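Prompt: I keep going back and forth on a fold encoding question. Comparing notes only helps if you start from a blank page. Show me how you would write down a chain together with its backbone fold. Please set it down just below, with no commentary around it:
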Amino acid sequence: MVTIKIEKFEGPLILLLRLIEKEELDITQVSLVHITDQFIEYVSKITNIDPDEMADFLVVATKLLLIKSRALLPYLYPEEEKELEDLTKQLRMYKEFLEAKKKIEKIINNKKFMFAREFNRRAILSNINLFSPPKRITTVDFKKVFKELLARLKPSEKLEEKKLEPKISIEDKILEIKQMIINRIKISFNRFFTKSNSKTEIIVTFLAMLELIKKREVAVSQKKLFGEILISKE
């Protein structure tokens, strides 16, 4: 299990999430980029990464991202916030699939591929006639019945087509932010998000901003508590 070490915390990532959820630690003081860098460094030193550990990190990191997005971007649309919550649910489901995969692999390794049906003793004792196919039935008869069953099924409905959103990378957003501030002394933090068309673009923009701050390529200032946040070239 990877141990996260930041300015105001040192310990497992799940403990960090619990402290933030209990409001014992301010999420705005936590660098998600720093946490991600530490996990990537940890993974690079391991020969075989445990899928469960990777899934756990994705679940917790997504939850932290959701909490931080709510704190720093309170104007998120309800449907976009729901999509972030749905992502967390999908990652948890992914973890459940990994656990199921382990159980199936264990069964296969034990070479136990056949499971006998339980003997219906109660049906025999109560003189209930169990189903038994006619002795003269053939594969042709089965084929005929199967075709009749298929004919009763409703035709499948055509699914609604979805357009794929263009891929947005952190590198592209970093270049875009640099271009926006190149001829300006200071620019409002909120202005970087006015042209964002989706929650994905908002998150990528936010991560690009964190990366620039981390590299000291931009400076952040705020005159008063809860006041406007201004961005300028370092």
